[in-house]
Amino acid sequence: MANIIVISGSPTASSRLHGLIQYSEAQLKQQGHEVVHLQVAELPAEDLIKANFASSAVIEAVAKVERADAVIIASPVYKASYTGVLKTFLDLIPQKGFQGKLIVPLFIGGTIAHLLSIDYALKPVANALGATNILSGVYAIDQWVEKAEGGGFNLSDELKSRLDGTIAQLAEELKWQTLRQGTPAIR
């Protein structure tokens, strides 16, 4: 099955974004995919801010992206865009680091008004990194994710349905990607 990395741009461990990530990871693992979670805020801050390409932590994180067949980019939306900590990591990915990979945005914000943050903030950066297949992904609003007593998250039925649709689309695209890569060129 496919190797998928989730790049989380949340600066906090208690973000409702983790509800989307946990649900998606569980669904993908259930389908047999290998899922790796990269919490950007756990990388050394100085290495991110100073763009230390030689940092062992940065090298390891970028290598995980290189090995992935698909990249889920997850972020809360602040000031109509994804987080700055996520941007600092994206800046460390090589120029064509997303080439040949499926990209799936998972964003969450306080209002539906920032829905276009995926199109206007993330997609241009993903395209600059070589992405050519960016799936529609999911934009959720905070009220669709409740923090459960004792930890964890409860997602609304609508959000689960939207995540299920995106995961199904990703699985289908991964299947076609595998078929294309395994088919010899016709001459």
UniProtKB/TrEMBL annotation:
Molecular function GO labels: FMN reductase (NADPH) activity
InterPro entries: Flavoprotein-like_sf, FMN_Rdtase-like_dom, NAD(P)H-dep_FMN_reductase, NADPH-dep_FMN_reduc_SsuE
SUPFAM superfamilies, per database record: Flavoproteins
Keyword list, A-Z: Flavoprotein, FMN, Oxidoreductase
Record-linked Pfam families: FMN_red
Keyword Glycoprotein: no
EC number, UniProt record: 1.5.1.38
Enzymatic class: oxidoreductase
Location of the NADPH-dependent FMN reductase-like domain: 3-144
Top-rank taxon, per record: Bacteria
Record carries keyword Methyltransferase: no
PANTHER family: FMN REDUCTASE (NADPH)
Name under which the protein is recorded: NADPH-dependent FMN reductase
